[in-house]
Amino acid sequence: MALTMKMVRAFLCVLSVFVSLVSERLVVLAAFSQSVDSDFTFTLPAGRKECFYQTMKKDASLEIEYQVLDGAGLDVDFTVFSPLGQLLFSDYHKSDGVHTIDTEEGDYMFCFDNTFSSVSEKLIFFELILDNMDTDEDPDDWKEYVHGTDILDMKLEDIMDTINNVKARLGKSSQIQTLLRAFEARDRNIQESNFERVNFWSVVNLIAMVLVSGVQVYLVRSLFEDKRKIRT
């Protein structure tokens, strides 16, 4: 009976250690910073200008990529301004573009301008990729949650490196898939526009051919008509 109690106590001790380690791992995983990348799709009416703001930290990186998915001409004017109001980039009548900025502290403004078009609205997709935004956090702060031998610390470092690599690759895959969806939407809109244009001009050509054929038949028949009057 005493041996059984010792085995139960030993099992409970091992179980408590395991639960403690698992809880610490969950705390470490919860401490991961969430992705700050984002993408948007919006409609820019004719004769309008829309501006967006992004707050950035010093020594971070901001990458802006945009595409015009639909609208006559598939073009738009695009500008980027620094927190001090300085013009950093400007694109005129472009269908897509990519710009990377090494940022300072403050709010960056980027604008899409469709004032040159008085009829057609534009469907625009853009993506923001933010890097080095967690500069105030210590990348090794998770180690304070770990208490154990050096071997355990080494294993945790390997696990963290693997998780970070997987997270980075998943983030890159998500960005590529988003861009591919944007390209697909743009190609689909172009195909639909071309399809409607081909159908319209096909109908116009058909009507013109019918009219020309009718005029030709009338002229040929008028050439062979006997215009002499029969005298009685």
TrEMBL record:
UniProt topology in membrane: Single-pass type I membrane protein
A family per Pfam: EMP24_GP25L
Keyword Transmembrane helix part of the UniProt annotation: yes
Main location, first listed in the record: endoplasmic reticulum
Start and end residues of each GOLD domain: 49-130
Transmembrane segments: 200-220
Keywords assigned: Endoplasmic reticulum, Membrane, Signal, Transmembrane, Transmembrane helix
GO cellular component: endoplasmic reticulum membrane; endoplasmic reticulum-Golgi intermediate compartment membrane; Golgi apparatus
Localization: Endoplasmic reticulum membrane; Endoplasmic reticulum-Golgi intermediate compartment membrane; Golgi apparatus, cis-Golgi network membrane; Membrane
Entry keyword Transmembrane helix: yes
Signal peptide (residue range): 1-24
Family statement: Belongs to the EMP24/GP25L family.
PANTHER family assigned to the protein according to its UniProt record, in alphabetical order: TRANSMEMBRANE EMP24 DOMAIN-CONTAINING PROTEIN
This protein's name: GOLD domain-containing protein
Species: Oreochromis aureus
